[in-house]
């Protein structure tokens, strides 16, 4: 299943390389359009957060995959440290058939498994970290839009005063609102492009995760499973849950940031603006009532609440399978 998920993610990047290029170019363009040090600080904070998340996620995936394979070294080590009258059974690095003697060619199959798994994990990490970076960027744009709405009536610096010295207060408000609305629309378009690029992959992944969690839990409860195999299954289930939780956490973060826009508009001194400017803000607030979300083909929305739903569904399937066993 790891190979299937890896191929799906790689083919997603391959078939959507044009959209991914647009996302990357758009990301750099947003950095070039920053106006103040405060805005750059916000973008840098979210970029640093995305970097930390990506680094932690990458380390976890590589270390977990390596430990999963290295469990097959325990029987040979025990044969040397605590020998028995006969050699312990060989634990393959992963379920597979090489059509050779497993004990004689254990070293070769083990090295092949390490290389193959690390390559597969690299594909998964590259896809997920790229998606995580894009979501963090959307959150930073939404934060910028909210910041610009909040400071509509703040004291302007000398540069802005000189720029608008010939314009009335209403003209100034309309120009600032227009600029903030453009920033908000860019975030909406960026999020929609992310949805179009990764939606199908996420839909297939959520189905596979739900099924595999149920099947793996069933294998753990089987009485004939050895302790090392059970440890492997537990690691596999935890990896699936953490993988799904990371996506759900980022999806929840995207929803929260999109809903905060209307709150920041409300907290701005809108009552000091002209009636026309207030009407413009009302349209923005109405648009912000609908949250931005990361979904799997519009069927499943990634959020903390839905994450618990997937876990409950997997447990229900596991209960049914255990009853039929």
UniProtKB/TrEMBL annotation:
Q: Which GO terms describe its biological process?
A: signal transduction
Q: Cellular location of this protein?
A: Cell membrane
According to its UniProt entry, this protein's organism is: Cardiocondyla obscurior
| Name listed for the protein in its UniProt record | Odorant receptor
TM region(s), chain numbering: 57-84, 105-125, 198-220, 226-249
The answer to whether UniProt assigns keyword Transmembrane to this entry is: yes
Q: Which Pfam families match?
A: 7tm_6
Q: Which InterPro entries match?
A: 7tm6_olfct_rcpt
Lipid bilayer topology: Multi-pass membrane protein
Provide a GO CC annotation, any one. plasma membrane
Instruction: Tell me one GO molecular function of this protein.
Output: olfactory receptor activity
Which terms are listed as keywords in the entry? Cell membrane, Membrane, Olfaction, Receptor, Sensory transduction, Transducer, Transmembrane, Transmembrane helix
């Amino acid at each position: 299943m790891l190979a299937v998920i890896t191929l799906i993610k790689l083919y997603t990047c391959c078939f959507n390389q044009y959209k991914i290029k647009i996302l990357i170019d758009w990301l750099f363009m947003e950095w070039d359009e920053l106006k103040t040090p405060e805005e750059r600080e916000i973008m840098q904070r979210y970029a640093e957060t995305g970097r930390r998340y990506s680094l932690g996620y990458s380390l976890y995936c590589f270390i977990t995959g390596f430990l999963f394979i290295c469990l097959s070294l325990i029987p040979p080590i025990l044969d040397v440290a605590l020998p028995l009258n006969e050699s312990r059974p060989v634990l393959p690095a992963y379920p597979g058939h090489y059509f050779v003697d497993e004990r004689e060619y254990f070293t070769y199959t083990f090295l092949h498994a390490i290389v193959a798994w690390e390559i597969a994990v690299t594909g998964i990490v590259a896809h997920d970290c790229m998606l995580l970076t894009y979501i963090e960027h959307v959150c930073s744009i939404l934060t910028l839009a909210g910041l610009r709405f909040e400071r509509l009536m703040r004291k302007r610096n000398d540069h802005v005063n000189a720029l608008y010295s010939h314009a009335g207060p209403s003209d100034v408000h309309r120009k600032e609102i227009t600029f903030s609305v453009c920033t908000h629309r860019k975030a909406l378009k960026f999020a929609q492009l992310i949805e179009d690029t990764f939606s199908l992959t996420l839909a297939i992944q959520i189905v596979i995760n739900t099924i595999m969690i149920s099947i793996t839990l069933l294998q753990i409860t089987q009485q004939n499973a050895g302790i090392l195999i059970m440890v492997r299954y537990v690691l596999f289930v935890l990896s699936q849950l953490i993988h799904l939780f990371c996506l759900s956490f980022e999806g929840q973060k995207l929803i929260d940031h999109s809903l905060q826009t209307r709150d920041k508009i409300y907290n701005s001194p809108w009552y000091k603006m002209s009636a026309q400017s207030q009407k413009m803000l009302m349209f923005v607030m109405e648009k912000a009532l609908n949250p931005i979300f990361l979904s799997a083909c519009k069927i499943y929305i990634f959020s903390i609440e839905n994450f618990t739903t997937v876990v409950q569904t997997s447990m229900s399937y596991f209960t049914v399978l255990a009853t039929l066993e």
